[in-house]
Write a structure and sequence with these properties.
Number of strands: 13
Order of helices and strands: HEHEHHEHEEHHEEHEHHHEEHEHEEH
Number of domains: 2
Strand order of the largest sheet: 10-9-11-12-13
Number of helices: 14
Helix content: 25-40%
CATH topology of the largest domain: TIM Barrel
CATH superfamily of the largest domain: Glycoside hydrolase, family 3, N-terminal domain
Structural class: alpha/beta
């Protein structure tokens, strides 16, 4: 499952589509007007000799690909978990499926089934329904049933659970400190709920659970999924360009993942023609040396083709009108005179999509790190921070001469340590959260 940049299909992708490549993943770099994205999917489908799986990450909330340029119209998992209204979760999942169908996407790499048990988790956070396995399980099950009931395949991720990590597997090893005991106690339940709900696919994360081998390449993790949870559908890897998976050698990671039990290999958004050909060559050599068998390839092919056939009907010509629903975050007090943005490194899963995009008459500007220590007055000021790392950096730079309670901090959350500041956790950075913030900043709340 390769990706590519832009709206022009690379010639090598077209060649492989014509010779049997069965899946493509769309990323933020493929985002644009819905009509343009639909035309791209049609073009890919017409090039393909197979019923093509077109996938994307449309989780709702902070992680969106179809609405990458504007921010998602949907509140996302954390807010849904906090409200704990299964009917609302079902409605959001249905609407996201319809959005996918509008452009021809028939496989969504969602929902996130991770239980966010470690509040310092840098990559899951808002993407999880919460820190309670039972609550997460209920919402995962509801999400899967509603979304797939609307004709688009779901992918529960990131098996066996990314919620107890303090590092991001995009950037390096992500260790589950409690090992398989922790996984079994708190993290497998939502995946079991997804299996019981009939989820079409499950994505393996690149997690270190009692071993340095990433779970995506660990046969034991696949045995747990197949034999303990009873999953018979498609197993897909998280993107193999992530540091925790390959550290640069995507071909080796792809083969190791397949040997461990994966069916579909997600390669990431920027795989090159040379890298793709290296993967093909690696697999041909593995077949000729009997490191893998033809029967093993056939088994995975059957699973993938079954998914493609089941969800091939999902393409919809109907346009969808997205409703940005307000959220009940209670922000009190008078609006500030000045609004700053302060952020550090972005979350790779979210990408560089807009966050808390606001339009108002209130002056808004970026607060650069060098500006913090030189400021003498933060009175009647709001500062929007991107995430916990941003707040940590801001606190380290904050002048001792200025009280931290002179400003109001707004964060998409979650914040586990406010560092002496006072403020609001908005629960996300998508358009519904922006709507709440904008209403407050305009003095309309």
């Amino acid at each position: 499952m390769p990706g590519f940049v832009g709206f022009e299909v690379p010639s090598w992708v077209e060649e492989h589509l014509q010779s049997g490549l069965g899946s493509i993943c769309l990323y933020g770099s493929n985002s644009g007007p819905l009509e343009q994205m639909r035309d791209l999917v049609k073009q890919l489908s017409e090039m393909s000799s197979e019923k093509l799986i077109i996938a994307t990450d449309e989780e709702g909330g902070d992680v969106t690909r179809i609405e990458y340029l504007s921010g998602s119209s949907f509140s996302g998992n954390r807010t849904l978990g906090q409200k704990n209204d299964l009917q609302q979760t079902a409605s959001e999942a249905e609407q996201i499926a319809k959005l996918c169908s509008t452009i021809g996407v028939n496989m969504n790499l969602a929902p996130v089934a991770d239980v966010n048990t470690n509040p310092r988790n840098p990559v899951i956070g808002n993407r999880s329904f919460g820190d309670n396995p039972q609550l997460v399980s209920q919402h995962v099950s509801t999400w899967v049933q509603s979304h797939q009931g609307s004709g688009v395949a779901c992918t529960a991720k990131h098996f066996p659970g990314h919620g107890d990590t303090v590092s991001d597997s995009h950037l390096g090893p992500a260790v589950v400190s409690g090992g398989w005991d922790e996984i079994r106690a708190n993290h497998l339940q939502p995946f079991q709920a997804a299996v019981d709900a009939g989820v079409a696919a499950i994505m393996t994360g690149h997690l270190a659970v009692g071993s340095k081998t990433p779970t995506s390449q660990d046969s034991y993790a696949h045995d747990v999924l197949r034999n303990e949870l009873g999953f018979q559908g498609v197993v897909i890897t998280d993107a193999l360009d992530m540091k925790a998976a390959s550290n640069g050698d995507i071909a080796e990671a792809a083969l190791a993942s397949f040997i461990a039990g994966a069916d579909l290999l997600c390669l990431g958004p920027n795989v090159s023609e040379d890298e793709f050909n290296q993967i093909i060559t690696k697999f041909e050599l593995a077949l000729s040396s009997e490191l893998i068998t033809e029967q093993r390839v056939i088994e995975s092919t059957i699973r993938v083709e079954r998914l493609a056939n089941e969800f091939a009907r999902s393409f919809s010509q109907d346009a969808i009108e997205l409703e940005v629903r307000d959220l009940s975050v209670d922000i009190t007090g008078n609006p500030p005179k000045m609004v700053y943005r302060f952020e550090s490194t972005h979350n790779p899963a979210v990408g560089e999509a807009p966050w808390l995009g606001i339009e108002s008459d209130i002056p808004t500007q970026n607060l650069e790190p060098q500006m913090v220590s030189s400021q003498t007055d933060f009175a009647d000021t709001a500062i929007l921070v991107r995430h916990q790392n941003s707040l940590n950096e801001l606190a380290n730079l904050w002048p001792q001469s200025i009280g931290k309670k002179e400003v109001t901090i707004f964060s998409p959350g979650p914040i586990w340590d406010w560092k002496g500041f006072e403020g609001y956790d908005l629960g996300g950075a998508s358009l519904p959260h922006t709507k709440v913030l904008l209403t407050y900043l305009k003095g309309e709340s």
